[in-house]
Design brief:
Blueprint: E1 17-18, H1 21-30, E2 37-42, H2 50-53, E3 60-64, H3 67-77, E4 82-85, E5 106-112, H4 118-127, E6 132-140, H5 141-147, H6 158-166, E7 167-175, E8 180-181, E9 188-195, H7 204-214, H8 222-225, H9 227-230, H10 251-267
Parallel strand pairs: 2-3, 2-5, 3-4, 5-6
Antiparallel strand pairs: 1-8, 6-9, 7-9
Length: about 270
């Protein structure tokens, strides 16, 4: 790890650099890069994944907020590939991408993402799923377990619902702390999301607020959590069981309830 000592990880950025070459190759291979793909890397760091990605394509944008990393990347790779100094949460999939001279058919995302903003990054991907084909993400194992959780389990929640309504989830493999510098205190998971438009979510921002409200007090029933949503429609919802809790409903059931309430709202 001596070669990494001069690269002091920035704690508030949640940096843990991947240092295992074989794992890096395995992660990149999992993305299944094709000729028509534009690859966007979240948090390029010091290029652990980057150097393997560019063996498969020259359509690449590395997004990195840490200026020290950007300088090191440019020194290492020169002008062969594009690095953008920017917070990924502020990246504009429509306007930022068209600034670069790429002809591509689909966008694929890859990244060893900071554990402290995993949820925000995943929601950013869901919001922009119409631009993205798939993503291979490395994050804390505990968070990854929530993405494919089942109803009535401790892991099942807001992130589960959004993941399962927006993408097909596939767990790839688990990584020990020893493959990172510095070593995190937890195991990590690498997983793949393939985005789909299987479900019609009208007004996604409203739906997000609805789900947050439904799960806002996990031990409370839907009747208590959603009282402001349903108070005007109780007569139309007499056959619906609001004595259940949000964690007992599947993502599709929660979406159906939301759509029902939206239709009733329009009728009024």
């Amino acid at each position: 790890m001596d070669k990494f000592k001069k690269y002091r990880p920035v704690k508030f950025l949640g940096q843990n650099f991947l240092v295992d070459e074989n794992i890096a190759k395995k992660i990149v291979k999992s993305l299944e890069i094709n000729d028509g793909d534009l690859i966007i890397e979240i948090g390029a760091g010091y290029g652990a994944l980057t150097k393997h990605i560019i063996n498969h394509t020259n359509k690449y944008i590395g997004i990195e907020i840490d200026e020290k990393c950007i300088n090191a990347l440019k020194e290492k790779f020169g002008d062969k590939i594009i690095f953008l100094k920017k917070d990924f949460l502020e990246f504009d999939f429509r306007n930022d991408v068209i600034k670069f001279p790429f002809k591509f058919q689909s966008i694929k995302i890859i990244g060893n993402i900071p554990y402290n903003i995993t949820s925000e990054i995943l929601f950013k991907l869901f919001e922009n799923k119409f631009y993205i084909h798939s993503a291979v993400i490395m994050t804390q194992k505990e968070v990854a377990q929530r993405l494919n959780a089942k109803p009535k389990t401790k892991q099942y929640g807001i992130l589960t619902v959004h993941t399962q309504l927006n993408a097909y989830y596939k767990n790839l493999f688990t990584l020990p702390p020893t493959v990172f510098f510095p070593k995190p205190k937890v195991d990590s998971s690498v997983f793949k999301l393939t985005f789909h438009n299987k479900y019609n979510i009208k007004e996604p921002e409203h739906f997000s607020t609805f789900i947050k409200t439904a799960f806002g007090k996990r031990r409370k029933t839907l009747k208590n959590c959603l009282k402001d949503y349903i108070k005007s429609y109780e007569r139309d919802l007499i056959n619906y069981d609001f004595s259940r809790r949000a964690e007992e409903l599947s993502p599709v059931e929660l979406l159906d309830l939301y759509n029902t309430l939206e239709r009733l709202k329009i009728k009024q």
